[in-house]
């Protein structure tokens, strides 16, 4: 069945579903939005990722777990209780039970497997998929936009539809790809599949004859794109599995929307006194925690400046083992216990690629919602069914030439915000972020860093 989805009466996207094994309603998976991108005029705004839309963080974690089970079914024919997890993704009241089931039924792989998540949107999704597996023969790493001068990228490639296209990969172990027979590539959405194909070609050039699994929530490849996969399998002599929650086609011939100005909620807000409308002061708290081991690297900023930053080794950017997953869970629980009481209406924010650790922290806080900042510029509109209702923007604290965006935090929606970054935010950036939260009526603000 073919359905036409309209975006702001400016863009028409024709969607046809071929496979929907878990019978998800499309409205439960995504909303539509228009974006500032000449390569593709629209965006499927995921309701499962925790990126552009605030969600229950456990739902985002569980989405990865479901894909993990589906991978095992596709590659080894194993059978698990999909029904409970699917029910939980459709109804939050089953989420705790479903996560307990997933944790009690981790999967051991006999084939050495490397999981790779794509920056920036799928870094946490890839980690969540990886968390469903256990064993000493598996590893997770995500690609990064950060160009690190001391590191040699194991592979680099371009993402064709993305706003920021370059990917690097910096495992701390040399020759990492030689250790694994199967490579699992995780992205939130596949449009043409060329990003994965580019990566497979890049890997195969140095490490031939691997087995691949391409994983996504949404797979929109048309017949000609699927043929490209089959052709590449024959050309390289490899096997490529595909795993997704929904498989179909999406076609759009509309040009990118022009002439729409985005009104940012915080754009006209000066520094001003730090008091709320009722006269109470803004409460700003800083929490510095130690998180495992660190490495110092020199990052090339977008203007060419070189700057030294400290990175968390277990963030996923440099590779983590399955044993690190339980350590992340335990550390997140300790952080939440240390901070103590939270407001009932609390939003936890990860930043750009740094999504999984903040997401796990958020999952330990009762009633918390979670989302992340993003580099993607998207049009905001108050139309009821539109995916981006409102927008705020600020300069990235760690590369001020990059604009970051936060979407769908409406005025007076939350009483408290936790802004979680890999390292401490400088005073100038902190003031900008405080003003952003003030503009939406949040006066209890915690900066958490490591």
From TrEMBL:
InterPro entries in the cross-refs: PRTase-like, PRTase_2, PRTase_dom, TRSP_dom, UCP020967
Domain named Orotate phosphoribosyltransferase-like: residues: 29-249
Pfam families recorded: PRTase_2, TRSP
Occurrences of domain TRSP (ranges): 315-435
Xref: CDD domains: PRTases_typeI
Name listed for the protein in its UniProt record: Phosphoribosyltransferase
Source organism of the structure: Clostridium bovifaecis
Source species taxonomy: Bacteria, Bacillati, Bacillota, Clostridia, Eubacteriales
